[in-house]
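Retro notes (design track)

What went well: tokenization of the new backbones is finally stable.
What didn't: we kept losing track of which sequence belonged to which structure.
Fix going forward: every design gets posted as structure first, then sequence, in one message. First example under the new rule, 142 residues:
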């Protein structure tokens, strides 16, 4: 009787082991291997079309931070490295380097922007040929 019980126990154990082994293998095979989500260790670095645009980026962003009123949401377009699509900014090739791209004109006409000053803005844009700013509220000095 002990021998029969022992054989029954071994058979039961073997079947249980095989079922567990099969179940584990089938789940491992059927479970898709998820690729790890790669998050950049370095924040997105802006890539500029030209170094002249990279130069004026911080000037524009600093000026944007001085805007106290923007009822039309113009400055919401002043994001990213493609400065040439910012509302009010126009790019062209400068006369001294026709293969370069730079901000050649700024037209804020009718934008109703308000800022206490245009200091450190217009004079900092090295290739600016035209500045148009009717119907805005810029105070103090240019």
């Amino acid at each position: 009787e002990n021998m029969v019980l022992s054989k029954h126990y071994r058979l039961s154990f073997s079947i249980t082991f095989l079922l567990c082994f099969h179940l584990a293998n089938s789940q491992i095979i059927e479970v898709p291997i998820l690729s790890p989500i790669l998050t950049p260790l370095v924040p997105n670095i802006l890539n500029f079309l030209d170094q002249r645009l990279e130069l004026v980026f911080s000037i524009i962003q600093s000026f944007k931070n001085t805007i106290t009123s923007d009822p039309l949401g113009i400055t919401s377009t002043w994001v990213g490295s493609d400065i040439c699509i910012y509302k009010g900014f126009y790019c062209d090739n400068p006369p001294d380097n026709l293969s370069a791209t730079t901000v050649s004109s700024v037209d804020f006409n009718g934008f109703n922007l308000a800022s206490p000053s245009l200091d450190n803005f217009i004079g900092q844009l090295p290739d600016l040929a035209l500045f148009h700013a009717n119907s805005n509220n810029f105070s103090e000095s240019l």
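Added context from the reviewer: The radius of gyration is 33 Å.
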